[in-house]
Amino acid sequence: MKQSKMLIPTLREMPSDAQVISHALLMRAGYVRQVSAGIYAYLPLANRVLEKLKNIMREEFDEIGAVELLAPTLLTADLWRESGRYETYGADLYKLKNRDSSDFILGPTHEETMTALVRDEITSYKKLPLNVYQIAAKYRDEKRPRYGLLRGREFIMKDGYSFHADYDSLDETYNDYKKAYEKIFERAGLKFRPIIGDGGAMGGKDSQEFMAITDDRTNIENWLVLSKNISSIEEIPSSVLEDIKMELDKWLVAGEDTLVYAEGGDYAANLEMASSQFEPTASYTEELELEKVATPDAKTIEEVSTFLDIEPRELVKTLVYKADEELVVVLLRGDDELNEVKLVNHLGSDFLEAAAEEDVFELLGAHFGSLGPVGLKNVKIIADREVEVMKNVVVGADEDGFHYKNANLGRDFEVSEFTDLRTVREGEVSPDGRGTLKFARGIEIGHIFKLGTRYSDAMNANVLDANGRSIPMIMGCYGIGVSRLLSAILEQFARIYVEKTPKEEFKFSWSINFPKELAPFDIHLVPVNTKDEAAMALTNELEEKLRGKGYQVLVDDRNERAGVKFADSDLIGLPVRVTIGKKAAEGIVEVKIRATGEVVEINKDELVNTIEILSN
After folding, report:
1. Which residue among 230, 262, 285, 371 is the one 20 to 30 A from 224 at the CA level?
2. Under a CB-based contact definition with an 8 Å cutoff, are residues 202 and 449 in contact?
């Protein structure tokens, strides 16, 4: 492929609006261009990478019997009304009308569509299980699209759906997908981890996320590739290393999710779902007399604990939420933070939001900062399990400017339900007791769900079982963020190349270091001077030979200065660069391996063998 025929609009500088390195490099290296906020065009290089990712997926899904199809993006709202999600999905749903004023949406996901397709075609359990998927654009009206491809309004997604007559069959397919996803991400060269996930708007209860782990900036060496004349990082002057550290610190650590994992164990979960070990122990502390005390101008946990000279963990804070129009009181230990996802999952509610202060005042007779559960009746009170073992706690007195000391469960207030509601902290013991919890940033790249009959019940998607009875089909759902994968790969494979000039000066620059299986081309042939007949003849000869060996080759046939060609080649990030320069007439070329920075001069006849040896 001739580079002069491709659209690869590289930039001299990093784009000023980029916050993460993947976005910056995709823009600068000419892989993508923003069309509008959260909407990108995938230029030829990016499209080639995406197609390679898709082919890896297709190969692995073939192995588990998943069949590819393509559903429409423009969907009738009627299907979403059947499932109930047209009203509950929220503001991210693109809604529109056609010329007849009928309601349509742009598909953010396709559970309803796939359920309707299968419902209308499959009537017997004998035709199950059925396992289908598609790779297509999805649309969500993100309030604040950001981080390039990581949070957009239009994105590419692989969404799969399986249909079963029994749960054993669902479990088998779910496990097949888990293994297939692990193979896909391994082939993509990603550092990733399967974790316990939240079903969210999908409606699934049993789910697993796959998170690409994003590195922090503490180990500079992980980000560097040294040129051939730098033997080790110790040669680089401290001032240059400091500049590199400042460059790394410019970019946010990508990852909208916090991964919680057990150091020394196997446990891993999204922060929204993570738990720590809880061992309830009976307290034999004497219950003291309830005492009402004035706490003027003390409203926050910190202010009340300081005023009363106690630790925050000796307070119980009272929060009020509106869950599907019902007010719910939530109790937590004073130094804990509520995990709203856990609360939503416990309640099974579609909507959850903090209650308005006027609604709280009507219920409790006090404003925020003085709320408490003592004597509270006719409202559901849900408490974190830590509250159950607390004695003689401080709580709001439901009177502005007052708190109770020595409040005790059972005597002074009641709780409807206890459950795990708190957000875990680093250093706590894993729930299985194996290791302590650590936090890392991560990018969600895949998610699998056991949906059960959530959609088949709502949409009357039934089959006849072996006894002739009508039963709802049991469903699974399996997604991969294909365009997100592109960003995740760059977050992990971006590198800073450090060179030493003939004047003993050190220079560094960003570049992409694609894994071999995903690079848009395998080899970059760069003739330094396109007017040199010997160089161009050798370039054509090498292109033909390499293509004959199955390599995908990009030839920089542009009439540009050598410095421009090398800078663009470094940005594009192909695994191997072959430079055809002044020694072309002698059949001598220079080979550079991007992953290691290794550079060798060889005879043209040794090129194929050299590439095979150095690339392994």
Report:
1. 262
2. yes
Query: What phi and psi values does residue 563 have, to the nearest 5 degrees?
Result: -60, -40
Looking at 388, 419, 450, the residue that finishes a domain is 419
Find the farthest-apart pair of alpha carbons in the chain and give their distance in angstroms, rounded.
98
Q: Are 370 and 407 members of one domain?
A: yes
Same domain, 406 and 482: no
Does residue 302 form part of some domain?
A: yes
On whether residue 459 sits in a domain, the answer given is yes
Nearest partner of 323 among 351, 298, 286, judged by Cα: 351
C-beta of residue 53 within 8 angstroms of C-beta of residue 515:
no
Give Cα 104 to chain centroid, integer Å.
Answer: 28
Residues 6+ apart with CB under 8 A from 181: 194, 210, 446, 448, 478, 480
Residue 523's alpha-carbon distances to 46, 475, 613, 615, 616, in angstroms, are: 16, 44, 14, 11, 14
CA distances 148 to 23, 27, 136, 487, Å, are: 5, 9, 18, 8
Among candidate residues 419, 454, 472, the one where a domain is terminated: 419
Question: Do 526 and 449 belong to one domain?
Answer: no
The length of the chain in residues reads 616
Which residues lie below 8 Å from residue 128, measured CB to CB, with a gap of 6+?
122, 163, 164, 165, 169, 463, 473
State residue 202's pLDDT score. Answer: 43
Whether 478 and 596 map to the same domain: the answer is no
Name the 3-class secondary structure at 179. helix
For residue 543, what are its two tokens?
């292109």
Domains of the chain: total:
3
**Tens digit of pLDDT for each residue in 337-355?**
999 999 998 998 878 899 9
Q: Note down the domain range covering 362.
A: 291-419
| Side chain identity at residue 77, one-letter code | A
Distance CA 473, CA 464 (A): 10
Choose among 418, 410, 343: nearest CA to 386: 418
CA distance 457 to 462: 8
Question: Which residues of the chain are under the pLDDT cut of 70?
Answer: 198-205, 282-283
pLDDT score of 205 = 57
- The answer to whether residues 541 and 604 touch, using CB atoms and an 8 Å cutoff, is yes
- Tell whether 582 is covered by a domain: yes
The confidence score (pLDDT) of residue 201 equals 45
Ranges assigned E (strand) in 201-247: 206-213, 224-226
- Which pLDDT does position 199 carry in this prediction? 54
> Over the Cα atoms of the chain, what is R_g?
30
